[in-house]
């Protein structure tokens, strides 16, 4: 099942729990072994896998770490990219003002109404 905004919170929790259970089984770990390696109670693993909401996020992270899934959070919440000004500052360059065409030195043309900008 694809996780989307159309699903209820409970449906998403159950889907995530099922995915965690599949990852655990793929690594041939029992719930007890996973709990021991993650430093959480076996009941925490049971709750996560069943989609119960009475678990703490820290327990979820510990279990994901043991299952080798923690790096996938980078895809979920990537580090924000620096904006254009920050990129210029990082490169040591100063901002340049955007301008139209360059006028010859000493030549000034006065703008008048109806003239294209």
TrEMBL record:
One Pfam short name = HTH_31
Taxonomic source organism:
Candidatus Accumulibacter phosphatis
**Comp. bias regions, Basic and acidic residues:** 104-117
Domain spans labelled HTH cro/C1-type: 20-73
Q: Where is this region: Disordered?
A: 77-117
Superkingdom is Bacteria
Alphabetized SUPFAM superfamilies for the sequence? lambda repressor-like DNA-binding domains (SSF47413)
Name of this chain's protein: Helix-turn-helix domain-containing protein
Which stretch is the leader sequence?
A: none
């Amino acid at each position: 099942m694809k996780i989307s905004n159309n699903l209820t919170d409970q449906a998403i929790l159950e889907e995530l729990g099922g995915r965690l259970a599949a990852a655990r089984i793929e690594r041939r770990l029992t719930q007890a072994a996973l709990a021991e390696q993650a430093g959480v109670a076996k009941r925490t693993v049971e709750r996560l896998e069943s989609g119960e909401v009475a678990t703490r996020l820290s327990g979820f992270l510990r279990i994901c770490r043991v299952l080798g899934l923690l790096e996938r959070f980078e895809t979920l919440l990537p580090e924000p990219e620096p904006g254009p000004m920050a990129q210029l500052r990082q490169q040591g360059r100063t901002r340049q003002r955007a301008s139209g065409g360059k006028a010859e030195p000493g030549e000034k043309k006065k703008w008048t109404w109806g003239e294209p900008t």
